Known about the structure:
- The protein has a 4-stranded antiparallel sheet. A 3-stranded antiparallel sheet has the order 5-6-7, covered by helices on one side.
- The protein is 49% helix and 21% strand.
- Helix 2 (36-64) runs antiparallel to helix 3.
- The termini are far apart.
- It is α+β, with helices and mostly antiparallel strands.
Amino acid sequence: METGSPDDTGAARAAKAVDTAEDTSGDEPVWTGLPPGLLRMRRLLLVVWLGLLTLAAGLLPGLFLGPFWAALALLPLALMVWGWVMLERNWRSWRYAERADDLLISRGVLWREETVVPYGRMQLVEVTSGPVERHFGLASVQLHTAAAATDATIPGLDPTEAERLRDRLTELGEARSAGL
């Protein structure tokens, strides 16, 4: 038994779906993910720090208290395996989109957080890169607005992309704030 009006045929429904998809496709932002270099850098830091902790947790108790206590090294080792997986999930969750009037930044695995920064509200756009980031060829873009709570950061970008984004956001911010 068919429900709906007699003129609601399958072809009409398909045409409506295509029209609806075309209408909403312009509203959907084009998201850009972070480069894999950020994931490699964070995983290397995880292995270095937890590797040292694993060695210390295994060697020191093993030498002073007996070989049974060397099993304490399993805890940081398990933490390293768990962190390896969680770092990838976190890296995949970060993305940003440039729209006509604002910049969207989305992140988070359990608690999704989406920050919308209007171009006209931006006061300062910084590109920063620490020594470890520079070694991996990465840079971060930090956006400052009048409200401290809405400051936003996009970590782990390629330096040329970070500079392009900084220049574009600065240009759009100046153009939008000129009307205020």
